[in-house]
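Take a look at the protein record below with the fold in mind.
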Amino acid sequence: MVWYKNVYLGDNAKKEKSTIVARTEGRRFQFDVYLITLPSNPDNLLEMFSANELIQPHFKKREAHKDIYIVGIAKGYDEALEVMGAVLTDTYNNTGGFDVAGYLGIGRKK
């Protein structure tokens, strides 16, 4: 799992950023925390999932999560949608397109 250096944060997530990052890295239960990531499916612009999915046995294998690139953190589903909107709006406003990885300077395909 890789974190974008200027990770987008929802207003509620800002207050708990360090705790959320530590609990996510440790794969510990978190109430209502969502991670916004670059997509594993090239047809998607971004993906969002509950941080608790990392607790699942599938993610205990290092290979299962090495390609997860986290670009946003939110507390609550609605805030997650807002954070995704902010990433996409910034990308479009600055590039005229939706190549999020390119806009963020991440050397990876969409």
